[in-house]
Fold:
Amino acid sequence: MTALTQDRNTPAALGVLRQGLVAASQLIYAGSLVCRNSSGYLVKGSTATGLIGAGRAEERVDNSTGSAGDASLRFMPGIFRFANSASTDEITDADIGALCYVVDDQTVAKTSATNTRSKAGFVEMVDDLGVWVRFDEALTRNT
Structure:
């Protein structure tokens, strides 16, 4: 492409709702923590390495018998509350601003459990019901 020589109406992605292709063998429930795998496909949150927290699933998608990319999922980045891990991996107010890690599709933890968990996002707030996690794929990936 060459440089512009006139005005251009550059397309914009408005709003926060996103859509992505789902990995093979995935059943993702609405409201669950979703991640992007190393191939760029969306997967439900789980204890695994190489994932990056993407946000909250906005719908239930069943690609449990499909191949990668056979289904797509609407998801939303932003700040959402998920369950807090327990014991020494419990997140507290002292962890606000720090990374947290994926335990499963509804739980986050303070540590990577010796590099067995992937990055979910950043701790925004902690309350009696759980941990508010800020999902920002680019920032999380580069931290």
